[in-house]
Amino acid sequence: MSTGSPLLADLIEALRCLPGVGAKTAQRMAFHMLERDRPGARRLAERLAVAVEKVGNCRRCRGFSEQEVCSFCANASRDKHLLCVVETPVDQLAIEQATGYRGHYFVLLGRLSPLDGLGPKELGLDLLAARLAEGEIEEMIVATNPTVEGEATAHMLSQLARAADVRASRLAHGVPLGGELEFIDRGTLAHAFGGRQSLL
Amino acid sequence: MSTGSPLLADLIEALRCLPGVGAKTAQRMAFHMLERDRPGARRLAERLAVAVEKVGNCRRCRGFSEQEVCSFCANASRDKHLLCVVETPVDQLAIEQATGYRGHYFVLLGRLSPLDGLGPKELGLDLLAARLAEGEIEEMIVATNPTVEGEATAHMLSQLARAADVRASRLAHGVPLGGELEFIDRGTLAHAFGGRQSLL
């Protein structure tokens, strides 16, 4: 131990649970908080403890929530005819922040991956099927990641939608905005070419 | 708020007290901890709360410590004839980790900066003078930063040492290891040239 305080050394070690934080950054964070921002550090400790204790998953959409039903699901002003299915809560946040989407969500908390023990049951597909059977959803927007597992998941979701007679759609794939054709990977470019859309 | 959980939004906001953590990183950290590392997050919350509450300053060297006297000062195997004076606890850690130094430390918790209200009293120079007057210290190593304020602080420290009849030394300035002369700033290069040492 190279600090004069074992509690400080403990804190530095604990900070390394944060993603992307190594030994040096953890040191800098610990010293910064103790030297300059104890109120901020105290607030962080409290909120972290509360969040870990209280935040669970919404009964209806499986997103993060400290209530039985999250604030998205409880919001009556959101469009109840649209349901966007995502893999993780962070994808849900990304869509909420980037798009003007005002419908509801369903969070799979994973993707189809039998080797990792993630099957239809773990992804809550029975809950999703029940949701579709309620008859209110008119369009299910599949927003899984464009990976092999994400595609397999999307395929299964489309079957689920067909069984419930609900229209299913998928995020468009293609050249990202600001990207240059020269540097786009072949698969994406081929996909964008095949899926070209008419101008006007 | 773009998450389904107000507590999660609170946590994301609180994480921004960490140095170098902006909105995106705070989100990533919060989601990572809640999705994948709740034990780590709980431990972090506990240790942070304890550290903020308990870690104060060592009565003897002013470094961080949860005891009256820090583990450096309490360590009888360290050389009691050497005292290294640094500006901040993080400088103390840097020296401890990089060098084989096994003497004692004194932490100024700042540098001479009258405009910021930091004078001899705030830097604990009375405590340092009393320490030198004890008569055990044979060499005081001044390790303040090579900035204008750090140099002014070093100058005052050298006067303090002279008054107590203690030998004072200063970290060597010069070309950093691995640096290339071409890219070194003029001041440093001039200093390194003037302070050249004989080979063997």
UniProtKB/TrEMBL annotation, chains A, B:
What gene name does this entry carry?
recR
* Zn finger limits (C4-type): 58-73
The GO biological-process annotations, alphabetized, read as: DNA recombination; DNA repair
Any idea which UniProt keywords this protein has? DNA damage, DNA recombination, DNA repair, Metal-binding, Zinc, Zinc-finger
Q: What does this protein do?
A: May play a role in DNA repair. It seems to be involved in an RecBC-independent recombinational process of DNA repair. It may act with RecF and RecO.
User: Do you know which SMART domains this protein is assigned to?
Assistant: TOPRIM (SM00493)
Sequence ranges assigned to domain Toprim in this UniProt record: 81-176
- Name-wise, this protein is Recombination protein RecR
Which domain of life, per UniProt? Bacteria
Q: Which positions carry the signal peptide feature in this UniProt record?
A: none
Q: Disulfide bond as a keyword?
A: no
Q: Which family does it belong to?
A: Belongs to the RecR family.
Which InterPro entries does this one have? DNA_Rcmb_RecR, Rcmb_RecR, Rcmb_RecR_Znf, TOPRIM_dom, TOPRIM_RecR
User: Which Gene Ontology molecular function entries are recorded, alphabetically?
Assistant: DNA binding; zinc ion binding
Write down the species: Dokdonella immobilis
